Amino acid sequence: MSAPPSARTADRYALIGAGPSGLAGARNLSRLGIPFDGFEAHTQVGGLWNIDNPRSTVYRSAHLISSKTTTQFAEFPMPAGTPDYPGHRELREYFEAYARRFDLHRHFRFGTSVVRVEPDGDEWVVVTDTDGTRTTARYRGVIIANGTLSEPNMPSFSGAFTGELLHTSSYRDPRIFDGKRVLIVGAGNSGCDIAVDAVHHARSVDISVRRGYHFVPKYVLGRPADTVGGRLPLPPWLKQRIDTRLLKLFTGDPVRFGFPAPDHRMYESHPIVNSLILHHAGHGDVTVRGDIERFNGNLVHFADGYAGDYDLVMCATGYRLHYPFIDPEHLDWTGRAPSLYLNIASRRHPNLFVLGMVEASGIGWQGRHEQAELVAKVIRAQDESSTAAAEFATRVAGPAPDLSGGYRYLDLDRMSYYVNRDAYRRAVTEHITRLDAPRAVRPGVTAPTPKDVHAHR
User: For a Cys staple, 280 with which of 1, 218, 253, 286, CB 3.0–4.6 Å?
Assistant: First the structure.
Protein backbone atom coordinates (compact mmCIF):
# COMPACT_ATOMS: atom_id res chain seq x y z
CA MET A 1 0.00 0.00 0.00
CA SER A 2 1.26 3.46 -0.78
CA ALA A 3 0.05 7.01 -0.54
CA PRO A 4 1.36 10.32 -1.82
CA PRO A 5 3.45 12.21 0.72
CA SER A 6 1.50 14.80 2.67
CA ALA A 7 3.29 17.87 3.97
CA ARG A 8 0.43 18.31 6.41
CA THR A 9 0.71 14.91 8.06
CA ALA A 10 4.13 13.42 7.30
CA ASP A 11 5.69 15.04 10.38
CA ARG A 12 2.78 14.11 12.67
CA TYR A 13 1.73 11.11 14.72
CA ALA A 14 -1.66 9.44 14.28
CA LEU A 15 -3.42 8.84 17.62
CA ILE A 16 -6.32 6.38 17.47
CA GLY A 17 -9.09 6.77 20.05
CA ALA A 18 -10.44 9.46 22.39
CA GLY A 19 -11.26 7.33 25.43
CA PRO A 20 -9.30 7.66 28.69
CA SER A 21 -6.02 6.39 27.18
CA GLY A 22 -6.43 8.41 23.99
CA LEU A 23 -7.07 11.57 25.99
CA ALA A 24 -4.01 10.85 28.13
CA GLY A 25 -2.03 10.45 24.91
CA ALA A 26 -3.35 13.73 23.51
CA ARG A 27 -2.60 15.54 26.77
CA ASN A 28 1.02 14.41 26.87
CA LEU A 29 1.74 14.85 23.17
CA SER A 30 0.33 18.38 23.21
CA ARG A 31 2.15 19.19 26.45
CA LEU A 32 5.48 18.33 24.82
CA GLY A 33 4.61 20.05 21.55
CA ILE A 34 4.59 16.86 19.47
CA PRO A 35 2.33 17.34 16.42
CA PHE A 36 -0.39 14.72 15.99
CA ASP A 37 -3.85 14.05 14.59
CA GLY A 38 -6.36 12.20 16.73
CA PHE A 39 -9.08 9.98 15.28
CA GLU A 40 -12.27 8.99 17.10
CA ALA A 41 -15.05 6.94 15.53
CA HIS A 42 -17.69 8.46 17.82
CA THR A 43 -18.69 12.12 17.85
CA GLN A 44 -17.53 12.75 21.43
CA VAL A 45 -14.74 11.83 23.84
CA GLY A 46 -15.01 9.27 26.65
CA GLY A 47 -14.75 5.93 24.86
CA LEU A 48 -16.79 3.18 26.49
CA TRP A 49 -17.80 5.52 29.34
CA ASN A 50 -19.95 7.45 26.87
CA ILE A 51 -23.01 5.21 26.81
CA ASP A 52 -24.22 6.86 23.57
CA ASN A 53 -21.12 5.62 21.77
CA PRO A 54 -22.22 2.67 19.57
CA ARG A 55 -19.08 0.81 20.65
CA SER A 56 -19.72 1.44 24.36
CA THR A 57 -20.17 -1.68 26.46
CA VAL A 58 -21.31 -0.01 29.69
CA TYR A 59 -24.79 -0.55 31.13
CA ARG A 60 -27.00 1.93 32.92
CA SER A 61 -26.03 0.71 36.40
CA ALA A 62 -22.27 0.62 35.64
CA HIS A 63 -19.97 2.26 38.19
CA LEU A 64 -16.25 2.14 38.78
CA ILE A 65 -15.02 -0.88 40.71
CA SER A 66 -12.08 1.18 41.99
CA SER A 67 -12.68 4.40 43.89
CA LYS A 68 -12.35 7.84 42.32
CA THR A 69 -9.27 8.48 44.48
CA THR A 70 -7.26 5.66 42.94
CA THR A 71 -8.72 6.00 39.44
CA GLN A 72 -8.68 9.71 38.51
CA PHE A 73 -5.93 11.59 36.71
CA ALA A 74 -3.65 13.08 39.37
CA GLU A 75 -3.49 16.49 37.69
CA PHE A 76 -7.27 16.63 37.27
CA PRO A 77 -9.13 15.36 40.37
CA MET A 78 -12.84 14.68 40.11
CA PRO A 79 -15.04 17.53 41.35
CA ALA A 80 -15.98 17.81 45.00
CA GLY A 81 -19.19 15.96 45.64
CA THR A 82 -18.45 13.20 43.13
CA PRO A 83 -19.46 9.88 44.75
CA ASP A 84 -16.76 7.45 45.84
CA TYR A 85 -17.64 5.13 42.95
CA PRO A 86 -18.98 7.32 40.14
CA GLY A 87 -21.19 5.92 37.41
CA HIS A 88 -20.98 6.34 33.67
CA ARG A 89 -22.86 9.66 33.73
CA GLU A 90 -20.33 11.32 36.04
CA LEU A 91 -17.44 9.77 34.12
CA ARG A 92 -18.72 11.00 30.78
CA GLU A 93 -18.85 14.52 32.21
CA TYR A 94 -15.40 14.05 33.75
CA PHE A 95 -13.74 13.15 30.45
CA GLU A 96 -15.50 16.01 28.65
CA ALA A 97 -14.24 18.40 31.34
CA TYR A 98 -10.73 16.93 31.10
CA ALA A 99 -10.69 17.44 27.34
CA ARG A 100 -11.93 21.03 27.70
CA ARG A 101 -9.45 21.85 30.47
CA PHE A 102 -6.47 20.85 28.33
CA ASP A 103 -7.95 21.94 24.98
CA LEU A 104 -7.85 18.44 23.50
CA HIS A 105 -10.98 18.43 21.31
CA ARG A 106 -9.25 20.41 18.59
CA HIS A 107 -6.71 17.64 18.05
CA PHE A 108 -9.33 15.02 17.12
CA ARG A 109 -11.30 14.29 13.99
CA PHE A 110 -14.56 12.97 15.40
CA GLY A 111 -16.84 10.64 13.48
CA THR A 112 -13.73 9.25 11.78
CA SER A 113 -12.80 5.57 11.91
CA VAL A 114 -9.34 4.21 11.23
CA VAL A 115 -9.69 1.50 8.58
CA ARG A 116 -6.08 0.55 7.93
CA VAL A 117 -2.63 1.22 9.36
CA GLU A 118 0.42 -0.09 7.52
CA PRO A 119 4.14 0.72 7.52
CA ASP A 120 5.76 2.06 4.36
CA GLY A 121 9.48 2.56 4.86
CA ASP A 122 9.99 4.67 7.97
CA GLU A 123 6.48 6.11 7.77
CA TRP A 124 2.96 4.78 8.28
CA VAL A 125 0.09 4.88 5.84
CA VAL A 126 -3.18 5.54 7.65
CA VAL A 127 -6.55 5.06 5.93
CA THR A 128 -9.57 6.67 7.60
CA ASP A 129 -13.29 6.75 6.91
CA THR A 130 -15.57 9.70 7.58
CA ASP A 131 -19.22 9.16 6.60
CA GLY A 132 -18.17 6.78 3.83
CA THR A 133 -15.40 8.98 2.46
CA ARG A 134 -11.98 7.38 2.72
CA THR A 135 -8.79 9.38 3.15
CA THR A 136 -5.23 8.10 2.91
CA ALA A 137 -2.31 9.95 4.49
CA ARG A 138 1.24 9.35 5.68
CA TYR A 139 2.26 9.75 9.30
CA ARG A 140 5.61 9.61 11.02
CA GLY A 141 4.24 7.19 13.59
CA VAL A 142 1.12 5.64 15.12
CA ILE A 143 -0.20 5.48 18.70
CA ILE A 144 -3.07 3.01 19.19
CA ALA A 145 -5.44 3.82 22.07
CA ASN A 146 -8.76 2.30 21.03
CA GLY A 147 -9.35 0.42 24.29
CA THR A 148 -9.56 -3.20 25.37
CA LEU A 149 -13.24 -3.71 26.27
CA SER A 150 -15.17 -3.44 23.02
CA GLU A 151 -14.83 -6.80 21.24
CA PRO A 152 -17.01 -9.44 22.96
CA ASN A 153 -15.49 -12.81 23.81
CA MET A 154 -18.51 -14.99 23.05
CA PRO A 155 -18.00 -18.63 24.00
CA SER A 156 -19.22 -21.57 21.95
CA PHE A 157 -21.57 -24.09 23.52
CA SER A 158 -22.56 -27.62 22.69
CA GLY A 159 -26.14 -27.80 21.46
CA ALA A 160 -28.50 -24.94 20.71
CA PHE A 161 -30.37 -22.57 23.02
CA THR A 162 -33.80 -21.48 21.77
CA GLY A 163 -34.27 -18.62 24.22
CA GLU A 164 -32.40 -15.31 24.19
CA LEU A 165 -28.63 -15.74 24.14
CA LEU A 166 -26.79 -12.46 24.71
CA HIS A 167 -23.38 -11.08 25.64
CA THR A 168 -23.03 -8.37 28.28
CA SER A 169 -21.74 -6.02 25.57
CA SER A 170 -25.36 -5.63 24.41
CA TYR A 171 -26.80 -5.16 27.91
CA ARG A 172 -28.05 -1.70 28.87
CA ASP A 173 -31.26 -1.87 30.92
CA PRO A 174 -32.39 -4.45 33.53
CA ARG A 175 -35.96 -4.34 32.24
CA ILE A 176 -34.95 -6.95 29.65
CA PHE A 177 -35.08 -9.42 32.57
CA ASP A 178 -38.70 -8.69 33.52
CA GLY A 179 -40.46 -11.91 34.45
CA LYS A 180 -37.78 -14.15 32.91
CA ARG A 181 -35.79 -17.10 34.17
CA VAL A 182 -32.25 -15.76 33.79
CA LEU A 183 -28.87 -17.45 33.70
CA ILE A 184 -25.72 -15.34 33.93
CA VAL A 185 -22.62 -17.12 32.60
CA GLY A 186 -19.47 -15.93 34.35
CA ALA A 187 -18.92 -14.37 37.76
CA GLY A 188 -16.52 -11.59 36.88
CA ASN A 189 -17.24 -8.02 37.92
CA SER A 190 -19.74 -7.40 35.11
CA GLY A 191 -21.43 -10.75 35.61
CA CYS A 192 -21.96 -10.10 39.31
CA ASP A 193 -23.16 -6.54 38.67
CA ILE A 194 -25.71 -7.73 36.13
CA ALA A 195 -26.88 -10.61 38.32
CA VAL A 196 -27.61 -8.07 41.05
CA ASP A 197 -29.51 -5.94 38.51
CA ALA A 198 -31.54 -8.96 37.38
CA VAL A 199 -32.62 -9.84 40.93
CA HIS A 200 -35.03 -6.89 40.96
CA HIS A 201 -36.72 -7.80 37.68
CA ALA A 202 -36.34 -11.49 36.86
CA ARG A 203 -38.51 -14.42 37.85
CA SER A 204 -35.34 -16.24 38.90
CA VAL A 205 -31.59 -15.65 38.63
CA ASP A 206 -28.88 -18.30 38.42
CA ILE A 207 -25.19 -17.68 37.83
CA SER A 208 -22.92 -20.24 36.20
CA VAL A 209 -19.42 -20.25 37.69
CA ARG A 210 -16.48 -22.23 36.37
CA ARG A 211 -13.91 -21.30 39.03
CA GLY A 212 -13.72 -19.67 42.44
CA TYR A 213 -13.00 -16.00 43.09
CA HIS A 214 -11.94 -13.72 45.92
CA PHE A 215 -14.74 -11.24 46.67
CA VAL A 216 -13.68 -7.81 47.90
CA PRO A 217 -16.15 -5.34 49.44
CA LYS A 218 -16.28 -1.80 48.11
CA TYR A 219 -16.21 -0.38 51.64
CA VAL A 220 -14.09 -1.27 54.64
CA LEU A 221 -14.72 0.58 57.91
CA GLY A 222 -16.81 3.09 55.99
CA ARG A 223 -14.09 3.95 53.48
CA PRO A 224 -13.47 2.74 49.91
CA ALA A 225 -11.57 -0.50 50.29
CA ASP A 226 -8.75 0.51 47.93
CA THR A 227 -7.93 3.54 50.10
CA VAL A 228 -7.45 1.49 53.28
CA GLY A 229 -4.01 0.15 54.17
CA GLY A 230 -1.21 -0.37 51.68
CA ARG A 231 1.11 2.19 53.24
CA LEU A 232 3.68 -0.38 54.33
CA PRO A 233 5.22 -2.42 51.48
CA LEU A 234 5.01 -6.15 52.21
CA PRO A 235 6.44 -9.17 50.42
CA PRO A 236 3.75 -10.82 48.24
CA TRP A 237 3.43 -13.98 50.36
CA LEU A 238 2.86 -11.95 53.53
CA LYS A 239 0.42 -9.52 51.91
CA GLN A 240 -1.55 -12.46 50.49
CA ARG A 241 -1.72 -14.14 53.88
CA ILE A 242 -2.75 -11.02 55.79
CA ASP A 243 -5.28 -9.76 53.24
CA THR A 244 -6.87 -13.20 52.84
CA ARG A 245 -7.54 -13.33 56.58
CA LEU A 246 -8.87 -9.77 56.62
CA LEU A 247 -11.10 -10.53 53.66
CA LYS A 248 -12.71 -13.46 55.43
CA LEU A 249 -13.51 -11.17 58.36
CA PHE A 250 -15.32 -8.70 56.10
CA THR A 251 -16.98 -10.95 53.49
CA GLY A 252 -16.82 -14.44 54.92
CA ASP A 253 -16.16 -17.60 52.97
CA PRO A 254 -17.77 -17.46 49.49
CA VAL A 255 -18.14 -21.27 49.61
CA ARG A 256 -20.91 -20.77 52.18
CA PHE A 257 -22.89 -18.93 49.50
CA GLY A 258 -22.48 -21.67 46.92
CA PHE A 259 -19.41 -20.41 45.08
CA PRO A 260 -16.46 -22.74 44.44
CA ALA A 261 -13.35 -22.25 46.54
CA PRO A 262 -10.76 -20.12 44.74
CA ASP A 263 -8.05 -22.17 43.02
CA HIS A 264 -5.54 -19.36 43.47
CA ARG A 265 -4.27 -17.06 46.15
CA MET A 266 -5.20 -13.41 46.55
CA TYR A 267 -3.91 -11.09 43.81
CA GLU A 268 -3.10 -13.95 41.41
CA SER A 269 -6.24 -13.06 39.45
CA HIS A 270 -8.40 -9.98 39.28
CA PRO A 271 -10.66 -9.91 42.37
CA ILE A 272 -14.42 -9.41 42.26
CA VAL A 273 -15.22 -6.06 43.85
CA ASN A 274 -18.82 -6.77 44.74
CA SER A 275 -20.26 -7.90 48.05
CA LEU A 276 -23.90 -7.48 46.94
CA ILE A 277 -23.72 -10.73 44.98
CA LEU A 278 -22.94 -12.54 48.25
CA HIS A 279 -25.79 -10.69 49.93
CA HIS A 280 -28.28 -11.85 47.29
CA ALA A 281 -26.88 -15.39 47.19
CA GLY A 282 -27.30 -15.52 50.97
CA HIS A 283 -30.91 -14.37 50.63
CA GLY A 284 -31.70 -16.94 47.93
CA ASP A 285 -32.16 -14.29 45.23
CA VAL A 286 -29.28 -15.73 43.20
CA THR A 287 -28.45 -19.43 42.90
CA VAL A 288 -24.91 -20.47 42.01
CA ARG A 289 -24.60 -23.19 39.36
CA GLY A 290 -21.59 -24.97 37.91
CA ASP A 291 -20.10 -24.97 34.43
CA ILE A 292 -22.38 -25.48 31.42
CA GLU A 293 -22.21 -28.83 29.63
CA ARG A 294 -24.70 -28.25 26.80
CA PHE A 295 -27.88 -26.56 25.60
CA ASN A 296 -31.05 -28.34 24.56
CA GLY A 297 -33.77 -25.88 23.58
CA ASN A 298 -34.58 -23.86 26.69
CA LEU A 299 -32.96 -26.49 28.87
CA VAL A 300 -29.39 -25.94 30.10
CA HIS A 301 -27.45 -28.97 31.30
CA PHE A 302 -24.63 -28.36 33.78
CA ALA A 303 -21.49 -30.41 34.33
CA ASP A 304 -22.65 -31.48 37.81
CA GLY A 305 -25.78 -33.14 36.37
CA TYR A 306 -28.27 -30.39 37.17
CA ALA A 307 -30.52 -29.13 34.35
CA GLY A 308 -32.73 -26.05 34.35
CA ASP A 309 -35.09 -24.15 32.04
CA TYR A 310 -34.20 -20.55 31.18
CA ASP A 311 -35.66 -17.80 29.05
CA LEU A 312 -32.48 -15.70 28.78
CA VAL A 313 -28.80 -16.60 29.00
CA MET A 314 -26.43 -13.64 29.42
CA CYS A 315 -22.73 -14.36 28.78
CA ALA A 316 -20.49 -12.27 31.02
CA THR A 317 -17.42 -13.79 29.41
CA GLY A 318 -15.26 -10.75 28.87
CA TYR A 319 -13.62 -9.17 25.86
CA ARG A 320 -10.81 -9.80 23.41
CA LEU A 321 -8.07 -7.40 22.42
CA HIS A 322 -9.07 -6.02 19.06
CA TYR A 323 -6.87 -4.00 16.72
CA PRO A 324 -8.52 -4.85 13.38
CA PHE A 325 -6.87 -2.08 11.40
CA ILE A 326 -3.29 -3.36 11.76
CA ASP A 327 -1.71 -6.70 10.90
CA PRO A 328 -0.93 -8.65 14.11
CA GLU A 329 2.68 -9.19 13.04
CA HIS A 330 3.43 -5.48 13.51
CA LEU A 331 2.46 -5.85 17.18
CA ASP A 332 4.34 -9.16 17.56
CA TRP A 333 1.09 -10.81 18.54
CA THR A 334 1.86 -14.04 20.38
CA GLY A 335 -1.34 -15.98 20.92
CA ARG A 336 -3.34 -14.05 23.48
CA ALA A 337 -1.93 -10.56 23.25
CA PRO A 338 0.69 -8.41 21.52
CA SER A 339 4.22 -8.74 22.85
CA LEU A 340 5.13 -5.13 23.56
CA TYR A 341 7.81 -3.67 25.77
CA LEU A 342 6.07 -2.55 28.98
CA ASN A 343 2.81 -3.36 27.12
CA ILE A 344 3.49 -0.14 25.20
CA ALA A 345 6.32 -0.14 22.66
CA SER A 346 6.59 -2.24 19.51
CA ARG A 347 9.76 -4.30 19.33
CA ARG A 348 10.03 -3.99 15.55
CA HIS A 349 8.80 -0.44 14.86
CA PRO A 350 10.32 2.41 16.93
CA ASN A 351 7.41 4.67 15.95
CA LEU A 352 4.53 2.33 16.89
CA PHE A 353 3.00 2.42 20.39
CA VAL A 354 -0.10 1.14 22.20
CA LEU A 355 -1.74 2.91 25.14
CA GLY A 356 -4.16 1.26 27.56
CA MET A 357 -3.22 -2.36 26.93
CA VAL A 358 -2.64 -2.99 30.60
CA GLU A 359 -4.71 -4.43 33.42
CA ALA A 360 -3.77 -4.20 37.08
CA SER A 361 -5.76 -3.83 40.26
CA GLY A 362 -5.74 -0.13 41.12
CA ILE A 363 -3.65 1.18 38.22
CA GLY A 364 -6.34 3.71 37.31
CA TRP A 365 -6.17 6.35 34.63
CA GLN A 366 -3.07 7.82 36.21
CA GLY A 367 -1.28 4.64 35.19
CA ARG A 368 -2.46 5.26 31.62
CA HIS A 369 -1.31 8.87 31.90
CA GLU A 370 2.16 7.65 32.83
CA GLN A 371 2.14 5.32 29.82
CA ALA A 372 1.32 8.30 27.60
CA GLU A 373 3.96 10.46 29.26
CA LEU A 374 6.56 7.79 28.55
CA VAL A 375 5.55 7.57 24.89
CA ALA A 376 5.66 11.34 24.44
CA LYS A 377 9.10 11.56 26.04
CA VAL A 378 10.43 8.67 23.96
CA ILE A 379 9.30 10.51 20.82
CA ARG A 380 10.95 13.70 22.06
CA ALA A 381 14.19 11.82 22.77
CA GLN A 382 14.07 10.25 19.31
CA ASP A 383 13.62 13.70 17.76
CA GLU A 384 16.67 14.91 19.64
CA SER A 385 18.67 11.78 18.74
CA SER A 386 19.65 11.65 22.39
CA THR A 387 21.50 8.91 24.20
CA ALA A 388 18.31 8.36 26.21
CA ALA A 389 16.51 7.36 23.01
CA ALA A 390 19.27 4.92 22.14
CA GLU A 391 19.16 3.48 25.66
CA PHE A 392 15.39 3.02 25.45
CA ALA A 393 15.72 1.27 22.09
CA THR A 394 18.28 -1.09 23.65
CA ARG A 395 15.88 -1.88 26.48
CA VAL A 396 13.05 -2.55 24.04
CA ALA A 397 15.21 -4.99 22.11
CA GLY A 398 16.28 -6.78 25.30
CA PRO A 399 14.49 -9.21 27.61
CA ALA A 400 11.09 -8.30 28.97
CA PRO A 401 11.16 -6.95 32.53
CA ASP A 402 9.32 -8.82 35.28
CA LEU A 403 6.13 -6.85 35.93
CA SER A 404 4.47 -9.42 38.19
CA GLY A 405 5.64 -7.91 41.46
CA GLY A 406 6.37 -11.43 42.68
CA TYR A 407 2.82 -12.74 42.17
CA ARG A 408 2.04 -15.86 40.12
CA TYR A 409 -0.84 -14.87 37.89
CA LEU A 410 -3.25 -17.45 36.53
CA ASP A 411 -2.56 -18.61 33.00
CA LEU A 412 -5.77 -17.19 31.50
CA ASP A 413 -6.51 -15.16 28.38
CA ARG A 414 -7.80 -12.24 30.43
CA MET A 415 -4.58 -12.23 32.46
CA SER A 416 -2.30 -12.17 29.42
CA TYR A 417 -1.56 -8.45 29.80
CA TYR A 418 -2.07 -8.22 33.57
CA VAL A 419 0.68 -6.65 35.67
CA ASN A 420 1.31 -5.69 39.26
CA ARG A 421 0.42 -2.04 39.67
CA ASP A 422 3.42 -1.07 41.78
CA ALA A 423 5.99 -2.99 39.73
CA TYR A 424 4.56 -1.62 36.50
CA ARG A 425 4.41 2.02 37.56
CA ARG A 426 7.94 1.79 38.96
CA ALA A 427 9.22 0.49 35.63
CA VAL A 428 7.40 3.16 33.62
CA THR A 429 8.41 6.05 35.90
CA GLU A 430 12.01 4.81 35.92
CA HIS A 431 12.10 5.23 32.16
CA ILE A 432 10.44 8.64 32.40
CA THR A 433 13.10 9.72 34.90
CA ARG A 434 15.86 8.56 32.58
CA LEU A 435 14.30 10.42 29.67
CA ASP A 436 13.96 13.56 31.79
CA ALA A 437 17.65 13.52 32.77
CA PRO A 438 19.96 16.03 31.02
CA ARG A 439 19.57 14.81 27.46
CA ALA A 440 22.99 14.12 26.03
CA VAL A 441 23.16 13.91 22.24
CA ARG A 442 24.86 11.02 20.48
CA PRO A 443 28.34 11.89 19.13
CA GLY A 444 28.20 13.40 15.67
CA VAL A 445 24.57 14.49 15.98
CA THR A 446 23.47 18.04 16.62
CA ALA A 447 20.41 18.38 18.81
CA PRO A 448 17.64 20.48 17.26
CA THR A 449 17.06 23.88 18.79
CA PRO A 450 13.58 24.99 19.81
CA LYS A 451 13.54 27.09 16.62
CA ASP A 452 14.33 23.99 14.53
CA VAL A 453 11.59 21.98 16.24
CA HIS A 454 9.08 24.79 15.72
CA ALA A 455 9.98 24.96 12.03
CA HIS A 456 9.00 21.31 11.61
CA ARG A 457 5.54 21.99 12.98
Answer: 286
